[in-house]
């Protein structure tokens, strides 16, 4: 008989100390992985080790500690370069997160965009992917066009094709929707945009935990993610940019590290990647992020994806047995995220009672108000699974959900 | 019939909730209390009467009769409805002064302290703030007349 688990989940769970804790007197069932992933002991140890043995500012010291810290930091850069299959390590920029990375690129397009130029985003976007562009349009006079979705939550590619024209300068879409878990056809989106010489920025924050990303195969111009979604600490983001694009756009933050020469009247900027890494970075965070990446790669993203898919299917089938259940974003092409509502019960109520059972889910609009507006709902309950969740946890979740529903009916 | 003051109503609530020793019974009781919430008229369920800072929608309206403020409310979430019902039971039917001067320590004492957690504290604090703002507005209006 085929086993449900293709990875050793019991062993993996032992690597995550937080999974032992209780919440409201109940064992924690953590189903909010799309918000942030949990942290394995090796990553925790990496941070402690940094501060206890080699904490030192990087890139600028002649002494040994500084050299050690710099080596570790740059090694992390190479890890991410290899992981994303980028040509050069200087095409990997460390930021404070995906939101920062997106703002960095949006800011870079200030000089590139002219009045009447067009930016394409999708109706699925997270607010971090909408607001910087709206701000940019206010400043430059560019216009935003939106790729619509259908009732299944899928992007309507035919409509996207109609939006593309010679005035399109940049397209930006999330690889995987944070609210619905749907995987978008980004390769196709990129190919079509390039016909019009438009740049494409893909938000990969919800994709990198679940699939291998090859920026060369995608031929993407910019790809961003946050490492706290892939077992890293919070406060670190990764921006991949094609060299030609990173050279084209100006720096975002000015300060130390990103200069070549400074006088009181004028400064010249460093080359890549320093141009975009002003100030003292989150050194321990970047190093620990590399450790988190190694941890995930040791298990293997394909194995992780297979297992999470089983969890997704199991949970989806169990949920569909519940009366008045509505699941948003039904698609064969999804990551392990389920956004749902029980008719006539507010998601906030469900989330509150589930929390009493020790179950962590996310409720509300998930910073994706346009999707909620499309479905005309105040929000959803979102359960998102990771490779350290189990079938038993899903069973407990379903049982608690049924109890919550009867309490709230 | 003797009407209770705010402090006495708070004590009454503390006694009622003291009967329950687990969260499920407390929440069920709160949901029950929500069912007797004096409901705001449909025409006032708009942005003007919406309380900011809640994950769910909560509308509150205040009217004044014989120097007593009467609150009516509604919410699209059952638990929020229960919370606003409790607050209205405590603060409605009293003078602006009494409402402005009343404290809200009872929330902690009835075992709904978790509703003061940062996310929900927004909702709960916003609700109390709104009720007091209404009272302040009416008091100011009275002083100017």
Nutshell version of this structure?
Chain A has about 400 residues and is α/β, with parallel strands linked by helices.
Anisotropy-based shape of chain B? globular
* Cα-atom radius of gyration of chain A: 22 Å
Mean pLDDT across all residues of chain A, rounded?
A: 94
Extract low-pLDDT stretches of chain B: none
Overview of the structural elements:
Chain A has two domains: 140 residues, Aspartate Aminotransferase, domain 1 (Alpha-Beta Complex); 255 residues, 3-Layer(aba) Sandwich (Aspartate Aminotransferase, domain 2). In chain A, 39% of the residues lie in helices and 17% in strands. A seven-stranded mixed beta sheet of chain A has the order 4-10-9-8-7-5-6, sandwiched between helices. In chain A, strands 13-14-17-16 form a four-stranded antiparallel beta sheet, with helices on one face. In chain A, strands 1-2 form a two-stranded antiparallel sheet. In chain A, strand 8, helix 8 and strand 9 form a beta-alpha-beta unit. The two termini of chain A are 40 Å apart. By secondary structure, chain B is mainly alpha-helical. Chain B has one domain: Sufe protein. Chain: A (Alpha-Beta Complex). Chain B is 52% helix and 11% strand. Chain B has a two-stranded antiparallel ribbon. The radius of gyration of chain B is 15 Å and the shape is globular. The N and C termini of chain B lie far apart (31 Å). At the A-B interface, helix 12 of A face helix 2 and helix 3 of B.
Features:
heterodimer; A: 409 residues; alpha/beta; Aspartate Aminotransferase, domain 1; Aspartate Aminotransferase, domain 2; 2 domains; seven-stranded mixed β-sheet; 17% strand; B: 145 residues; mainly alpha; Sufe protein. Chain: A; 6 helices
Topology (SSEs and partners):
The complex is a heterodimer of chains A (409) and B (145).
Chain A: H1 9-14, E1 22-23, E2 26-27, E3 29-30, H2 41-54, H3 64-84, E4 92-95, H4 98-108, E5 118-122, H5 131-140, E6 143-147, H6 157-163, E7 168-174, H7 186-195, E8 199-203, H8 215-218, E9 222-226, E10 237-241, H9 243-248, E11 259-262, E12 267-269, H10 283-299, H11 301-320, E13 325-328, E14 337-342, H12 347-356, E15 359-360, E16 362-364, H13 369-375, E17 380-384, H14 391-408
Chain B: H1 6-18, H2 23-34, E1 58-65, E2 68-75, H3 78-91, H4 96-101, H5 106-109, H6 118-144
Antiparallel strand pairs in B: 1-2
């Amino acid at each position: 008989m085929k086993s449900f688990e293709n990875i050793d989940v019991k062993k993996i769970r032992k690597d995550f100390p937080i999974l032992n804790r209780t919440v409201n007197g109940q064992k924690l069932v953590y189903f909010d992985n799309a918000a942030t992933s949990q942290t394995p002991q090796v990553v925790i140890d990496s941070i402690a080790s940094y501060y206890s043995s080699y904490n030192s500012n990087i890139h600028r010291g002649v002494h040994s500690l500084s050299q050690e810290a710099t080596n570790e930091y740059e090694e992390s850069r190479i890890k991410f370069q290899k992981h994303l299959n980028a040509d050069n390590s200087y095409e990997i920029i460390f930021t404070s997160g995906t939101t920062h990375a997106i703002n960095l690129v949006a800011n870079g397009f200030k000089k590139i965009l002219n009045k009447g130029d067009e930016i394409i985003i999708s109706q699925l976007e997270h607010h971090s992917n909408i607001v910087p562009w709206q701000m940019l349009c206010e400043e430059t006079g560019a216009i935003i066009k939106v790729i619509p979705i259908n009732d299944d939550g899928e992007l309507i590619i035919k409509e996207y094709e109609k939006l593309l024209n010679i005035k399109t300068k940049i397209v930006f879409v999330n690889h995987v929707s944070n609210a619905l878990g749907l995987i978008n056809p980004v390769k196709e989106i990129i190919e079509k945009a390039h016909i019009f010489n438009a740049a494409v920025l893909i938000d990969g924050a919800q994709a990198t935990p679940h699939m291998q990303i090859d920026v060369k195969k995608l031929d993407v111009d910019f790809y961003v993610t946050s490492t706290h979604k892939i077992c890293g600490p919070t406060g670190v983001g990764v921006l991949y940019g094609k060299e030609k694009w990173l050279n084209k756009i100006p720096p975002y933050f000015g300060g130390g590290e990103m200069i070549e020469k400074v006088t009181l009247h004028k400064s010249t900027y460093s080359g890549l990647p320093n141009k975009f890494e002003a100030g003292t970075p989150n050194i321990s965070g970047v190093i620990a992020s590399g450790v988190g990446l190694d941890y995930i790669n040791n298990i293997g993203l394909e194995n992780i994806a297979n297992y999470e898919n089983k969890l997704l299917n199991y949970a989806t089938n169990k949920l569909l047995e519940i009366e008045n259940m509505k699941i948003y974003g039904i698609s064969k092409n999804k990551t392990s995220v389920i956004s749902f509502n029980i008719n006539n019960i507010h998601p906030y109520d469900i989330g509150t009672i589930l929390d009493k059972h020790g179950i962590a889910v996310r409720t509300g609009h998930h910073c994706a108000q346009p999707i909620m507006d499309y479905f005309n709902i105040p929000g959803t309950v979102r359960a998102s699974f990771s490779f350290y969740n189990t079938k038993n946890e899903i069973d407990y979740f379903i049982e608690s959900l049924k109890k919550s529903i009867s309490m709230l009916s | 019939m003797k009407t209770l003051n705010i402090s006495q109503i708070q004590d009454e609530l503390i006694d009622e909730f003291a009967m329950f020793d687990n969260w499920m019974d407390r929440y069920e009781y709160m949901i029950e209390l929500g069912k007797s919430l004096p409901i705001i008229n449909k025409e006032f369920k708009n942005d003007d009467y919406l309380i900011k800072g809640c994950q769910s929608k909560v509308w509150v309206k205040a009217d004044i009769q014989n120097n007593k403020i009467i609150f009516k409310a509604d919410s699209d979430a059952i638990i929020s409805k229960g919370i606003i019902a409790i607050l209205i039971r405590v603060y409605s039917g009293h003078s602006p002064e009494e409402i402005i001067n009343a404290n809200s320590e009872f929330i902690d004492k009835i075992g709904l302290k978790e509703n003061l957690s940062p996310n929900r504290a927004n909702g709960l604090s916003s609700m109390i703030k709104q009720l007091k703002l209404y009272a302040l507005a009416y008091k100011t209006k009275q002083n100017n007349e």
